[in-house]
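Sharing a chain and its predicted structure for anyone who wants a worked example. Both blocks are below, sequence first, tokens second.
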Amino acid sequence: MEIDLPSAKIIWDNGKIPVVLRRGGSQAIRLRVPYSPNNREWLKNGPGKRHPIWNKEKEYWELPASRFNELVKMILNRYGKVYIIQPYREKEVCSPSCINAEGFECQCSCLGANHGSGNHQGWYEVTEALALRYGDKKLGCRLLERI
């Protein structure tokens, strides 16, 4: 679900449920987990792993982005749930035939939002039946729970 910065801050500071912050690309992952004296050892486990970095001032762990999937599994095994906060961009799907259409009948997934607009700005036309456009970056959050 999409969240705003104040809501993300509340989740980030919750103190009970671990939070992984993916910032995108190859930027390091930031992580908050409830305090345990063995957190450093637990986080550095695994073959060829770099040591996690503790940011004492802001109270979070920093780990390589390449460890994201493994880290989520580790957290679910240890804590049973984890919040993941990450940037995302919504994808719109339409078609050039819809954008160029005349009249009001639209059977496209845009539900008429782009119908007959003639505006091809920002659209990547894959075929004459498919055009894609990505929106602005937003912040999303999801709670995963072990079942």
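Comments welcome. Residues 5-88+137-145 form one domain.
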